[in-house]
Each structure stands twice: as structure tokens, then as C-alpha cells.
Amino acid sequence: MSDFAPCPKCHSEYTYPLDALLVCPDCAFEWNPNEWTEDEGLVVKDANGNILVDGDAVVVIKNLPVKGASQPIKAGTKIKNIRLIDGDHNIDCRIDGFGAMALKSEFVKKA
């Protein structure tokens, strides 16, 4: 058992220090124990690792096929005013020509 704080994500007790951070070997989460608060909430990152927040604008980075539509969402499509949700498809938005959609954050970048 270590003398360090347990992982805030998976609650593993096997954390270890790495420079100024603590690292969890089970879920690979890294955090600064001096800056971490328990109510961090939902953290969603785009394809480049930028943190997204509600109301951001994003750009699709690859063509995304849409079930039931004759054409895909083209790469370069800008989506404004996103809403973050919990789940596999963690971006809720409205796309012109397609309507309301749920997207995965790994297929967009912050505009």
C-alpha cells in the first residue's frame, strides 16, 4: 500500500509519483494532487487533446458515414454550440442538413 492519495478516477490505491504528478498504473490517469478537486466533472477531449466545453465550436476531421443518409458528414464541417454528454458518443449537436446528432469526440477538433 502506498502513502499517496488513491486515484480519483478508479480509486486504485497503487498510485506513484512522477515529477510533480501522481500516476495511476491501473487506468493511466495523471493528476496534480495540489490542484485536483473531487468535482472535476465530465472532461471531454478532442482528437488533438484539447479540452472541450459546452458551447464550443468544433470541426469534423474525417468523413463520417450517417446511418440512413445518402451522404456522409464531410471532413471540414464546422459544428457550433456543442453540448457534452456522458457516454460513448459524448458530443450532442445539430448539423445543418442532418439535424440532431451524437458524435464521438475523437472525430472532431476544436475550431
Question: Please, what is the average pLDDT?
Answer: 88
The neighbouring-strand order within the major sheet is 1-2-3
Number of helices: 0
DSSP helix fraction: under 10%
Kindly estimate the percentage of residues that lie in beta strands according to DSSP. Answer: 25-35%
The structure class reads mainly beta
Structural account:
The protein has 111 residues and is an all-beta fold. It is built from no helices and eleven strands. It has strands spanning 16-18, 21-23, 30-31, 44-45, 51-52, 58-60, 78-79, 83-84, 91-95, 99-103, 108-110. The chain has a three-stranded antiparallel beta sheet with strand order 1-2-3, with no helix packed on it.
Quick rundown:
The protein is mostly beta strands.
Could you give the topology of this structure?
Layout: E1 16-18, E2 21-23, E3 30-31, E4 44-45, E5 51-52, E6 58-60, E7 78-79, E8 83-84, E9 91-95, E10 99-103, E11 108-110
Antiparallel strand pairs: 1-2, 2-3, 4-5, 6-7, 6-11, 8-9, 9-10
Features:
mainly beta, three-stranded antiparallel sheet
